[in-house]
Amino acid sequence: MDDDICAYSKHTASRFPVEVCENIIDMLYSVYLIDQVEHSRALHRCALVCRAWRVRSQRNLFYAVVLHDLAAIEKLSTVLDNAPHLCEYVHEVTLIGRTLHTTASPLSLLPIALRGKLPKLQAVTIKHVSEHEDWYPSASELESKSTKSLQYLPLHPRFSLFFSAFTSLATLQIYESTFRHFSDFARMIDSLPALQILMCIEVRCMALGSLPFSMKPRADGVHAPARPFAPNLQELFLFDMDVRCVQRLVSACGPQLRQLSVTMPFCHDAEMVLPGDPATEHTEGVDLTLCTTLEGLDIWLFPHFVTDGQSPDKLKAMLNSWESDSEGPLRRIYLQPSIPSIFTRQDFADLLGTVGRAIEEVLHESSAPPSADGEVGEQGGRWRIVIHLNDWEVWLDWWRAHVQECFPTFARSHGLGMYYRPPANFNETKWKDSNALPPMPITNT
């Protein structure tokens, strides 16, 4: 059977110009973790089809490396030692698996084994796969017996020192992982001298602890350490992360921050251990006072924004703390559903109505009254609202009408926009009533 498959593959490959095959191989790249795992396996198979496919397949395989455990890291290190020219190929590394929260966690070994071997590394992704995620292979019985499960990422005491060797690393993404202390997380971030983008999705800290020294400001707003915290970090994407951790990062990175993405309502981790005197750092929302260069605020909305009774006021407080300067850059607020599949279209349209009322109240409080033709004052003119929606074209007019109704002042002053595109091929990106058709417009006969 295998001989028949190989013969068919060679026959099929020879029917097309090699450039066509290379273009298809190049399509095996994705920002989605599930796809990355599958594409890595596919590229391994492509490299074995024929000599013409091998070079392009191996190049793409090493461009974005997917590692699953200690053995995979050791194997990659050996390959790079034996073929040093491949070191230049590696631009992205994804560390994913079920062992990250165990005594066999490969994270601490990663910067040690690959030290000095990845001169062009641009991005690292760390993803802990939980037991309930069935898309990823289950741990073998032998692995389960030989490792001890932990509640957090076990890091070497000098991990941040080893991690700092990745001097070209510009993007760090961490998914569904838990740190023992917030200070461990902060040291990891601060160790990367070239870090520009940090994305954290469902990242937890078991203990908040006192504010790390590297994050402490002076009375005049200048940081006390020799250099500011993560001095090149300009984009923060913080999803489902405790608001106290979010505020620490925002305050520490504020002076150089240009893009901030958060989820609302803000998350409060009830299990996180707080410092002995929690009153010294009482955080209910996000203060943007120090974010003097912030240009974009991206807010991912959950349904209970409407029902928790506090989120509209917290949104207004956050926007009021965003310093206004008529001479400064245009301030953009991006709004989108956290997970479209938990909303019907009408649910999210109603939620936008609540958000719109809160934002327009802030606008009217911070700007001159609208003129007779409905245009906002000078200060309000520096704001722009952009709604991100994934839906079919047949719903475009329905959405446009609802969005304009939710933000009437911005619509009149041309300060309202929509970023509209078809949903991706994932159930999470589709509305709960995805298969419904828009209501027919009422016409007068």
What does this protein look like?
With 445 residues, the protein is α/β, with parallel strands linked by helices. The chain folds into 3 domains: 1-63, no CATH class; 68-136 and 149-213 and 228-250 and 270-289, Alpha-Beta Horseshoe (Leucine-rich repeat, LRR (right-handed beta-alpha superhelix)), CATH 3.80.10; 295-435, no CATH class. It has helices at 2-13, 18-26, 33-47, 51-63, 70-82, 109-113, 141-146, 159-163, 182-190, 243-253, 311-321, 345-366, 396-406, 408-412, and strands at residues 64-67, 92-97, 123-128, 171-175, 178-181, 197-201, 204-207, 235-239, 259-264, 296-301, 331-337, 383-390, 416-421. The strands form 2 sheets. The chain has an 11-stranded parallel sheet with strand order 1-2-3-4-6-8-9-10-11-12-13, sandwiched between helices. α3 (33-47) runs antiparallel to α4 (51-63). This is F-box domain-containing protein. It comes from Dichomitus squalens.
Secondary structure topology:
Layout: H1 2-13, H2 18-26, H3 33-47, H4 51-63, E1 64-67, H5 70-82, E2 92-97, H6 109-113, E3 123-128, H7 141-146, H8 159-163, E4 171-175, E5 178-181, H9 182-190, E6 197-201, E7 204-207, E8 235-239, H10 243-253, E9 259-264, E10 296-301, H11 311-321, E11 331-337, H12 345-366, E12 383-390, H13 396-406, H14 408-412, E13 416-421
Parallel strand pairs: 1-2, 2-3, 3-4, 4-6, 5-7, 6-8, 8-9, 9-10, 10-11, 11-12, 12-13
Helix pairs in contact: 2-4, 3-4, 11-12, 12-13
